[in-house]
Amino acid sequence: MHWREVALPGRVCILAPATLFPDDVMGARDTAPSIDIDQEGPAGGAPRLRLRGRWTLQHASGVGAALAAAPAKAGIVDATAVDRLDSAGVLQLLRFAHRHDLDFDTFEFRADHHALVAAIEDVADDRPKKRHEYGFAAALGRLGFAVHDNWIEIVALISFLGENLAKMLRMVKQPRRFRLTATVSHMEQVGLDAVPLVFLLSYLVGAVIAFLGANILQDFGATIYVVELVNVAFLREFGVLLTAILLAGRTASAFTAQIGAMVSREEVDAMRTLGLDPVDVLVIPRLLALVVTLPLLSFIADIAGLLGGMSVGAFSLGIPPQAYLARMQETMHLRHFLVGLSKAPVFALVIGLIGCLEGLQVKGTAQSVGERTTSSVVQAISLVIVLDAIAAIWFMQVGW
Predict the structure, then answer these.
(1) Where are the domains of the chain?
(2) Bridge-based pairing state of the strands 12-17 and 34-38
(3) Any residues with CB less than 8 A from the CB of 101 and at least 6 apart, and which?
(4) DSSP-based three-state secondary structure for 43
(5) In the predicted model, is pLDDT for residue 291 greater than 60?
(6) How far is CA 219 from each of CA 122, 213, 312, rounded to the nearest angstrom?
(7) What is d(CA 207, CA 105) in angstroms, rounded to the nearest whole number?
(8) Is CB count within 10 Å lower at the N or C end of the chain?
(9) Is 108 within 8 Å of 78 (Cβ atoms)?
């Protein structure tokens, strides 16, 4: 006995003997995909396309042939007469719309097809990435795209800086916008909680610099100059640079993840709905906390690095702490400390802006949060090192 699939009301499909449901009884339910062209169209414009039959995977070849024969210019595509529609049919209609620059939102579907069409339209662009191409042309193309993307990020960062400065000036005129509790809380998270890590790593790096300097200087009988090496290196460069890199990895990522999670949960949209400015509530307290705490952490890093150098001098180089401190007092200049400390607020502003901006650019998915968090860390560390190199060259050129 031959069985056939039969669609009953309520979109329920059953198998029944073909003798019970012959072709003349089934009528239009077994028709192949077809398109009727109404040349009149709306208001005498482009023709109206009326879709009929079953637009399913089983009739994919017929769907393709019908769309290939359809005119490129269509005013309205009416699919309300389609008997059955599945994901394959919706995808073919989407591609037809994209191929002929038609607005898919103007396509007319039956009410019971709307959910399927909306679901397929949402995931239609989630296709696997193209295979990675090799060769000079492909590498040059990727380089061009990377430069363009980086330029867009730079412009966005500068614009975000201007927006924050403008709203900080507004906050001076309207002090009620300042959120003291949030700022103090972020100062604790950013500054106080980072003190042990900053102190330990700076102490170890100071000890390493003293060891490396001693290995070179002892060949010339100038081991005592290790004191100057550690002092100048940490007061001018390593203290503030190590602190900024640690906070770029620790704080910028935290800012991005926190704000990105709020964006994905639509909490930022809720703030705007309530009349609150997300920059006032989320960004400025974090920026102020960083600007205040990073110079203090840099000072702690300087002290830790000097202690590390003094420990190596006392235990490995035969320089007693009294002699080390006396040499430090003779050779240390205040300008070295001021040069290093002057860079701390700039680094704090860069780290805070990048971390908050990347968080606000999250698209709402977990993957976007991870990508933006990684991007914020990479951008913050890279920009801090670049700015430190520029500042070092400039201070040397002006004789500071």
Answers:
(1) 31-123, 152-397
(2) unpaired
(3) none
(4) helix
(5) yes
(6) 70, 11, 17
(7) 67
(8) N
(9) yes
Architecture in CATH of 31-123: 2-Layer Sandwich (3.30)
Q: Which two tokens stand for residue 49?
A: 């396309």
Distant-in-sequence, close-in-space partners of 269: CB < 8 Å, separation ≥ 6: none
DSSP string over 129-143? PPPPP-SHHHHHHHH
Look-up of token digits 């077994």: 30
For residue 103, give every residue at least 6 positions away whose Cβ sits within 8 Å of its Cβ, in sequence order, or none.
Answer: 97
> Residue 204 in contact with residue 308, Cβ under 8 Å?
yes
Q: Take residue 212 and report the two structure tokens written for it.
A: 């490396």
Q: Please, are residues 305 and 205 in contact by the beta-carbon 8 Å criterion?
A: yes
Q: d(Cα 27, Cα 34) in Å, to the nearest integer? A: 15
The string of pLDDT tens digits covering residues 44-80 is: 567 788 888 888 888 888 888 888 888 777 778 888 8
- Residue 124: phi and psi, rounded to 5, are -65, -30
Q: Which two tokens stand for residue 66?
A: 């019908």
Please state the pTM of the whole predicted model.
Answer: 0.65
Nearest to 357 by CA among 242, 246, 263, 267: 263
Query: Who has greater pLDDT, 119 or 209?
Result: 209
Tokens of 253: 């990522």
Integer Cα distance of 98 and 125 in angstroms: 12
What number of CA atoms fall less than 13 Å from residue 150's CA on the CB side?
10
Nearest to 80 by CA among 53, 41, 61: 53
pLDDT of residue 28: 42
pLDDT above 90: residue 346: yes
Q: What phi and psi, each to the nearest 5 degrees, are found at residue 186?
A: -70, -35
Place of tokens 């949402």: 122
Q: What is the pLDDT of residues 244-277, one digit of tens each?
A: 999 998 899 999 999 998 888 888 889 888 888 8
Tell me how crowded residue 300 is: count the other CB atoms within 10 A of its CB.
18
